[in-house]
Specification:
Blueprint: H1 7-32, H2 36-45, H3 64-76, H4 83-86, H5 88-109, E1 113-114, E2 117-118, H6 120-124, H7 126-145, H8 152-176, H9 184-209, H10 214-241, H11 244-247, H12 253-256, H13 262-268, H14 273-282, H15 288-300, H16 303-325, H17 333-342
Antiparallel strand pairs: 1-2
Helix pairs in contact: 1-3, 1-5, 1-17, 2-7, 3-5, 3-9, 3-17, 5-7, 5-8, 5-9, 8-9, 9-10, 10-16, 13-15, 13-16, 14-15
Length: 347
């Protein structure tokens, strides 16, 4: 996947790289504090070690969520303030929470690859991957519990509530695989919980560490949620048409798993012949030819166009919410660049 070569894209790439340089030392210190067996799984999952414990130059994550924390803190900080510096632990906490979900999602979805190499559960087994995910989430909350910043308690409470919502979204996503009557409204609500909630929480934590008031914090949360839904729509498109060289996953992985992603549900509920063809394909096991036919059916039923248009609409809503918190959007350039970057990825 790639970003369109715009000024915003270049700014976002620089922000993400700067964020990785800022948060990785604290993130690594936290992970290295885990007991031996879990530390080994986590170090592998984060790409720092190979399965045998030797150093690795694995592909790092995007660091989008910690970047949102720091960018939100900067956007709402007072002139000359150091809110972003004080929010590093919060940024690490959301990255740990995100990786808790990835470790569990890979098990639930039986994904064999992440970031171009074997997933942790396929290397170390399901029990070790699940338990390590639990421990990584506990690390996130411990970081906030030990943080002396006055916003830390509110941040911990908010992150905890977010993770509960996120888990509810994951549970709904799993339940959809067993149903044939999933509505587009249900699927949108699921995606908002599963993806939008943590992006919203990231922005809200940055606002809290900048000393923002309740209205600004809620507006930042809403911005992140709307941008997060746009992100999920694009991610769902990539899950169907993405290039394995860029995604690190097999082509059509979501179709193979018969996921009820947003473009798929838009197609299934379209009332078209192509939508009915897709429903028939989803009713049984998928061959490689079936995956190709399913992707074509989603496209012909309008699922692809709907997802692209809806992603643009959600980004418009996100900007409206951001302007409530930061009336001068020039001060929120980092947030806008990050949101634009993740919703301009290509398949």
């Amino acid at each position: 996947m790639s970003a369109i070569a715009t000024g915003e894209g270049q700014e976002a790439v620089a922000l993400l790289e700067q964020t990785r340089e800022t948060v990785t030392p604290e993130l690594r210190r936290a992970v290295e504090g885990l007991p031996g067996p879990m530390r080994r799984v986590a170090m592998y999952h984060f790409g720092w070690e190979d399965a045998d414990g030797s150093p690795s130059a694995g592909r790092p994550g995007k660091a989008l969520r910690p970047a949102l924390v720091l960018a939100a803190a900067r956007a709402l900080d007072v002139p000359g303030g150091r809110a972003a510096e004080s929010a590093v632990r919060a940024a690490v906490a959301v990255e740990l929470a995100h990786n808790f979900t990835l470790l569990h999602d890979d098990v639930i979805d039986e994904d064999p690859k992440r970031r171009g190499r074997a997933t942790a559960w396929t290397v170390f087994g399901i029990p070790d991957a699940v338990v390590t995910g639990d421990a990584v989430m506990a690390l996130a909350l411990r970081l906030l519990a030990d943080d002396p910043h006055p916003a830390a308690a509110a941040a911990a409470a908010r992150l905890t509530a977010c993770v509960i919502e996120l888990c509810a979204g994951q549970q709904a996503d799993c339940s959809f695989e067993r149903r044939t009557d999933v509505s587009l409204a249900e699927c949108t609500t699921m995606a908002m919980a599963k993806t939008g909630a943590l992006l919203g929480c990231s922005c809200a934590l940055g606002a809290l560490y900048a000393g923002a008031g309740p209205d600004e914090v809620e507006a930042m949360d809403a911005f992140g949620r709307e941008a997060g839904l746009a992100f999920q729509l694009i991610d769902d498109l990539i899950g169907i048409w993405g290039d394995p060289e860029h995604t690190g996953k097999p082509a059509g992985a979501d179709l193979l798993a018969r996921k009820k992603s947003l473009p798929v549900v838009a197609a299934l509920t379209s009332g078209t012949d192509a939508g009915r063809e897709l429903a028939e394909l989803y009713a049984g096991p998928m061959t490689s030819d079936d995956i190709r036919l399913a992707a074509e059916a989603v496209d012909r039923a309008g699922g692809r166009d709907w997802a692209q248009a809806h992603a643009a609409d959600r980004m418009g809503r996100a900007v409206q919410q951001l302007s409530r918190a930061v009336p001068d959007l020039g001060a929120a350039g980092g947030l806008l660049a990050l949101a634009e970057f993740v919703t301009r990825r290509t398949c």
